[in-house]
Design a protein that fits this description.
The chain has 414 residues and is α/β, with parallel strands linked by helices. Helix content is 30%, strand content 23%. The structure holds ligand PMT. Ligand PMT binds next to helix 9, helix 11 and strand 17.
Amino acid sequence: MKILVGITGGIAAYKSPLLVRLLRKAGHEVRCVVTQHALQFVTPLTLETVSGNKVYADLFDSHNDHTTEHIALKDWGELMVVAPATANIIGKMASGIGDDALSTLLLSFMHKPIYLAPAMNTQMWECPAVQRNIEYLRSIGVHVLEPASGELACGTSGAGRMPEPEEIFATLTREVLSGAKMGVQAESDNTPLSSIPNPQFQRVLVTAGPTYERIDSVRFIGNYSSGKMGFALAQVLADKGVEVELVTGPTALEIDHPHIHRTDVESAREMFDAATALFPSCQAAILSAAVADYRPEHTADHKLKKQGAEGMTLTLVQNPDILATLGTMKTEQQTLIGFALETDNELDNAQKKLKKKNLDYIVLNSLRDAGAGFGVDTNRVTILGRDGSNYATPLLTKGQVAEEIVKHCLCPKA
Ligand code: PMT
């Protein structure tokens, strides 16, 4: 089938190439039409590579074969899907406005099947004007997919996420493409990953946050972990229906979800006790906590007095390694995923941890990556598998990184 993929300017545009790839692998011809804002999130080169065709961005591009190319495209295409579809493009379609290549094409395509995959902030999605536009478009036969709920790029949580490319592809296949001539099947080792965890993963243990190792009644040794990465993992898993055992060190974060069972701990030893007790009842564990490797040998139950000018010596003893211990407890049926926070020789060190701690996957965080690691809302990771797999994400929100980790480590191939 000949499919036009429209892409507008939302953060979810980084996932659009995957949709194009899924459509191509299923044997369809794809041409992409993008808005100028979409090009802030995805490059024409990526789209040209995955679609195998030039990308259409300008109404009056001098490289166009002729200035009414959007009209030629409308004759070429048999189905159009806009993913992500912003409030802006939805508003233009509903109002009959055509001021760029994509909006003009959409107006001329209304007599053929159009699917929209909205993506926007929850308040925008719930805005009466947007809902009126959606209702109107549905009433004239445009298919509007329901946005998913979860953490949004703006840091809030709620409805407004673009459905995953696999879900859009599944809907299109079910509703339109299954009758169309299918082409070559995807190679087995290259098949797309589903975004729904394997049903065997009913209960997953997640560790999050820092640990505090007490020196005395008012001081501790800690680190800068905020818990955001671990909480994002818990949220993503719970949103997919998985029961989550969240063991967290001290954090200001709150989380309220019927599938999330939270255990608050303070020290590495408390985290060790909670995690080793819960692991046998879980089918997988993701250890994102930043656990202190050492603790003071002695903890004073009062505030230590200032010592003389010669200074003060604190003797540290080693904490148990929770991840390594779970690696020794792990059964054939369990999946163990660790994190590695590195500052140099990142890949080498992460590979060593993967093997030494008997892990299935390790998620590498490099502190040399701007916008990644402690405290911030974004992250960029490389996921290494014991099977030799290696997948690097771009800089994404921690919610999106969590989504990628769950997809790569716990979701079967579609
Ligand atoms: O909480 P945020 O502010 O969102 O920050 C997220 C993060 C940077 C903390 C997170 O993405 C991350 O990288 N977590 C791992 C931090 C870490 O302690 O890495 P490590 O390389 O020292 O430890 C390797 C692995 O062993 C980790 O899975 C860790 O949880 C585990 N470990 C370490 C020591 C120990 N005694 N027990 C453990 O289980």
